[in-house]
């Protein structure tokens, strides 16, 4: 009996000891878990806090170190939601985003307006009487509604003009998205930069369509040769811009030269136009507009490549006035000049058509 009792006491003591040990262990474990959770939360809190903060150039990851003359106000590794929301906050990309986003809305408006106001191909013969006074050197919004010829030989196509407008819209929107979300991660940045370069190549190639199509409209072989040529050049530029090394900082001057030479090749059809249509007022006016456009794009490319003015006063143009913003504004101005030239081409060809075709 005593033995039985002592055994049961022993078991009881052991169980008490066990339960005390388990309580202690669980207490320690709970402490450890709560410590881990709180330190994790603390770390997470710091990360989230860091994510919302604008940082200096030195704190940037390698892939975002593009312009050492811009010192502060960078976003780096921001979550997608925060990056999207930063469209309405001030940082060193705010004006890069908005200069092209407003440009996109402007061209979207122009496309809708042009499509609504421009007479369709089938309407042209019936609207001949409305072409009473005709000024080659100016196109007002009222005149746009009267883009018809006194005696059109053949209705002309509108699609080349819309190819240009689509190129302008694509370029401006993709650039704007690129600047907005570039700060998210390296993977997203690489993807968006490719999209941005494709947009530039698309705009340049699309800009050739109205002048080439309407200048050589009456010579389909010449017209198609030029159009196929610039389309192939555009595709080649896109292929090169998809190479990973093309996005590196070392390739900045090469990028500028490649896009600039694509644009400069437009001199060939431009001179050809003057030789074929010398004395034609529309050919001369569009030539001056193309010269202006070339000047605006060229100046933009030089500013982009040289990083003026921030190079002269580093840190002074972080928020406003740095080279990329100026480049964006010049691109929109160049595209607007080209839009105006496009309207003149339409007027010219609606008025003349192709005799004998
Ligand atoms: Zn840009």
UniProtKB/TrEMBL annotation:
Region Disordered, residue ranges: 1-27
Compositional bias ranges of the Basic and acidic residues kind: 1-16
Membrane topology, as annotated: Multi-pass membrane protein
Transmembrane segments: 97-116, 161-183, 195-214, 226-244, 256-275, 287-305
Keywords recorded for this protein, A-Z: Membrane, Metal-binding, Transmembrane, Transmembrane helix, Zinc
GO (cellular component) term, any one: membrane
One Gene Ontology MF term: metal ion binding
Keyword Transmembrane helix set for record: yes
Localization: Membrane
Residues of the signal peptide: none
Pfam family, one: HlyIII
Binding residue positions for Zn(2+): 179, 324, 328
GO annotation, biological process: response to sucrose
Family named by the database record: Belongs to the ADIPOR family.
Protein's recorded name: Uncharacterized protein
Species this chain originates from: Marchantia polymorpha subsp. ruderalis
Lineage per the UniProt record: Eukaryota, Viridiplantae, Streptophyta, Embryophyta, Marchantiophyta
